[in-house]
Amino acid sequence: MIMGIDIGGTNTQGVLFDGKSMKARCSVEGNEARHAVRCYNLLKKKAARRHKVVLTGGGSRRIRKRDFPLPFKRVGEIKAIGRGGEYLSKRRSVFVASIGTGTAFVSVKNGNYKHLGGTGMGGGTFHGLSSLMINRPLNEVEKMARKGRGLMDLTVKDIVGSGIGRIPAKATASNFGKARRSLGKKEIAHSMLKMVGETIGAMSYFAAKTVGQEKSMLICGRVALNDTVKKTITDGVKLMGGKAGFPRNAEYCAAIGAALL
Ligand SMILES: Nc1ncnc2c1ncn2[C@@H]1O[C@H](COP(=O)(O)OP(=O)(O)OP(=O)(O)O)[C@@H](O)[C@H]1O
Ligand SMILES: [Mg+2]
């Protein structure tokens, strides 16, 4: 059995594989050696006595041999995201956007994993802006966002009076372009999630298009579980002519890749 443990910019995710089948998962808040060890101990309860460990993620570089209860292998995060995307999409050719603390774009073609770039827009942006403007835990901000109606965003209709070509009237022309404090925090939460989702959606689409994969985009990472972000990216990408999917276990993409590489 093989464990893949992804120590990210914020959290630690782990999976246990027996051949090609996933036997267990774990998610631990925190990204230090002790969080990786806790994740390992949780997975170990479900593992056969003989097992191997593969670490990945930005935080894995800081983990020294003596921090861990057994020898481990380390693999690069880009390869792990790519391999995980391949597994989750069941495709040999796929574009993967991994939205964690920040966002990375990876193109997979027949076992080649290419880092196309990324953006600092991601979960860390929600976290930071939420603490400045809303001051509530993220799951609450997410609920508030669902109640918002987008009243702070300037639409194409607000400027032009109608849609333009394929761009519908309700499309965003300017995120926060009509912001007023009196509209309240639900509107801030909504527009903030939408701004990050729309930016990532647009950047993902353009990145995917450079490699001809705009019709097979897979969105992973914990932020891909957020309903508002999901809808924003799905709609935005569709509007531009692409297709984005959100797999189950999206938050385990890199951990899965590490286990399977
Ligand atoms: N309900 C939520 N809605 C939106 N974002 C969330 C939610 N819960 C957590 N996040 C954000 O998800 C981010 C963590 O995601 P994830 O665990 O995929 O990243 P990571 O692997 O630690 O980071 P990276 O992959 O960038 O190194 C945090 O920045 C956090 O703010
Ligand atoms: Mg990650």
Which secondary structure elements does this structure contain, and how are they paired or packed?
Elements: E1 2-7, E2 11-18, E3 21-29, H1 33-44, E4 52-56, E5 73-74, H2 77-89, E6 93-99, E7 103-109, E8 112-119, H3 123-133, H4 138-147, E9 154-155, H5 156-160, E10 172-174, H6 185-210, E11 217-220, H7 227-240, E12 244-245, H8 253-260
Parallel strand pairs: 1-4, 4-5, 6-11, 11-12
Antiparallel strand pairs: 1-2, 2-3, 6-7, 7-8, 9-10
Helix pairs in contact: 2-8, 3-6, 4-6, 6-7
Residues 6, 8, 57, 100, 221, 254 line the site of magnesium ion (MG).
Describe it for me?
This protein has 261 residues and is α/β, with parallel strands linked by helices. It folds into two domains: 2-74, 2-Layer Sandwich (Nucleotidyltransferase, domain 5); 92-247, ATPase, nucleotide binding domain (Nucleotidyltransferase, domain 5, 2-Layer Sandwich), CATH 3.30.420.40. The protein contains eight helices and twelve strands. It has helices at 33-44, 77-89, 123-133, 138-147, 156-160, 185-210, 227-240, 253-260; strands at 2-7, 11-18, 21-29, 52-56, 73-74, 93-99, 103-109, 112-119, 154-155, 172-174, 217-220, 244-245. The strands form three sheets. It has a five-stranded mixed sheet with strand order 3-2-1-4-5. Strands 8-7-6-11-12 form a five-stranded mixed sheet. Strands 9-10 form a two-stranded antiparallel ribbon. Strand 6 and strand 7 (103-109) form a beta hairpin. Helix 3 runs antiparallel to helix 6, helix 4 (138-147) packs across helix 6 and helix 6 crosses helix 7. The longest helix has 26 residues, at 185-210. The protein is globular. The two termini are 13 Å apart. Adenosine-5'-triphosphate binds next to helix 3 and helix 4.
